[in-house]
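Two proteins were folded this term; both appear here.
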Amino acid sequence: MSYGDLVHLGHVELLTPELERSTRFFVEALGMEQEAAEGQSVFLRGFGDYQRYSVKLTEAPEPGLGHMAIRARDSDSLERLFVHVTRQPDFAPVAREILDLIQHP
């Protein structure tokens, strides 16, 4: 793995049993803007975000992390990251799941 392969974290999907209350928190307390709502999800962005959204809130029975996006410098960097992580015994199963999702969405 090379320094700088992971450029930055992208968006995050948070699961919440209280979608309206969670949305109000992110908008009123944190000052985020609601960009869109689709199905059981609300898309939010902060000031200066250049992506469509940085937080996706999705209604679910239990709170949790739906997913977290990472941005790599390029496809070779992404591959190096996954090779590095899959060689770590504690992280290998999770990394393989993620790699499978990327290859077979």
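Next, the second protein.
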Amino acid sequence: MTPSQNSLADLVGDGLLERAPIDVNVVRNLLRQAGNHLRTAAASSDDDPEGAFQLGYDACRKICLALVLATGLRPRGEGHHATTFDAASAIGDELLKTMTDGIDKILAAT
């Protein structure tokens, strides 16, 4: 883990994330919005690269937020964009660790 990353437990313990009910409609809407942002960014990248970058950033943030909300967590307080990215990274780390642990067990059994 790099110094800038926190575990989900750390983020919850520090009050940066809170437990929240999962709302599938909110998650779907965020993913729909992100897709719209990416399509618009691609279409306008030649004429407005700065605007396309902003739309790309917002799409990435909304995808990460959808992932965090889909796990039953919600960022809170100041710096919620950074918390969203940290939480999405921690979720990815946990999923990767679960996968690699499973692969290690399979390899050890062969």
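Residues 80-109 form the longest helix (30 residues). The helical segments are 8-13, 24-44, 49-70, 80-109. These notes refer to the second protein only.
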